[in-house]
Amino acid sequence: MAKAAGPAAVRARVRTFALGLPGAVEEFPWGESVIKVNKKVFVFLGVEDGSHPPGITLKLTEPEAHAHALTAPGAEPAGYGLGKAGWVRIPLGEKAAPAAELLCDWTEESYRVIAPQKLIAELDGG
Fold first, then answer.
1. Which residues lie closer than 8 Å to 119 by C-beta, 6 or more apart?
2. How many structural domains compose the chain?
3. Are strands 87-91 and 76-77 parallel, antiparallel or unpaired?
4. What CATH code is carried by the domain that includes residue 70?
5. What is the domain range of residue 41?
6. Please, what is the Cα angle at 5 between 51 and 89, to 5 degrees?
7. Computed from CA positions of residues 96, 78, 70, 114, in that sequence, does the dihedral angle turn out positive or negative?
8. Measured CA distances, 85 to 33, 41, 60, 74 (Å)
9. 3-state DSSP call for residue 87?
10. CA distances from 55 to 5, 38, 102 (A)
11. pLDDT digits (tens, 9 = 90+) for 36-48
């Protein structure tokens, strides 16, 4: 059985995946990494300096994925009122944290909620 990747490796994998999506760019408002498309955030990656527990925040508006994400250990609706709009914070340091593959799927879903149609068409090979 393969050993689960540590939080930093999982975060790095999600970051690499997110930056590979059409039009995605990384910015550092408030000193934390966010990945944006069309000037809008689709994934918050937090800080890497150890000052906060590792976690990512995604916008999941599809009810099944949203509910599934909230079952992750320690997951919760995002703060600052973002939870009401479907944003979920998922800790990466928990013992049974979601695998990088699942987090990448959710990252793509968050991207599809935020990205303009022409970039989604590009992602789909159109």
1. 21, 22, 23, 37, 38
2. 1
3. antiparallel
4. 3.90.1150.30
5. 7-123
6. 50
7. negative
8. 20, 13, 9, 19
9. strand
10. 14, 23, 14
11. 999 999 999 999 8
Provide the phi-psi class of 30: left if phi over 0, else alpha when psi is between -120 and 50, else beta: left
Q: What length is written for the chain?
A: 126
Identity of residue 39: K
- On whether residue 2 sits in a domain, the answer given is no
3-class state of residue 42 by DSSP: strand
Nearby residues of 4 by Cβ (< 8 Å), 6 or more positions away: 97, 99
**CA gap 43, 39 in Å, rounded:** 12
Q: What is the pLDDT of residues 101-122, one digit of tens each?
A: 999 999 999 999 999 999 999 9
Phi/psi at 29 (5° precision): -70, 150
C-alpha pair distances (Å), 83 with each of 7, 28, 96: 23, 21, 22
The token duo for 40 is: 């809008």
